[in-house]
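User: Hey, my collaborator sent me this sequence without any context and asked if I could get a structure. I don't really work with proteins. Can you help?
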Amino acid sequence: MNLKMILAALGLAASMGTARMAHAAEPFVKGLETCFTYVPATESDAGKNLRVNVSGQVVTIQARGSGKELMVVMEGALESRPVLYRETWSEGDEYLVAVHDFSGDGVPEILVAVRGNDHLRIRILDLYSGGKTVLGEMVSQGHGIREARVFRQAVTMKCPQNNVLYTWTCHNGVFDFLSSDHRDNPSDLL
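Assistant: No problem. I've predicted the 3D structure and written it out in structure-token form, which is a compact way to encode the shape of the chain:
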């Protein structure tokens, strides 16, 4: 095989990879290693799932639609199919489901986020309570915030209108809120 054929094959493979990437929904919460996005309006009601190993036990977390309702459920050795999150979705809503250790105890928490036309909501759920315990909730509505970033125990949103950073950091299982403009009230984002 000559060099010209090798370069052509590499170019074709690269363009195929780019085409596949363009069709996959990009995560709108950056910095997560284990996550998936799910758009109920355009994807199968069968949903998507991820498997995570928690202290030697495999747990499956699944997002699936049923008509206009979205459910995130968990199954595995911890509990069988408790509904972690349920809501009626609107046209244009995108969901992101992830696991990340926010508390720093070596056991991941579950992150469920929804991005709609004018809002971004993130909810952090305790895995061992079957999602019944909400450790934190981050909400922005009407500020043009379209994504967030996770780094270690923190979730940060940046407002494109004024470049203010809004950060929720987990300390001892509770999320504290700070903003870079020192208006430390999360209701400012509503």
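In plain terms: The two ends are 61 Å apart (CA to CA). You can pass these tokens on to your collaborator as they are.
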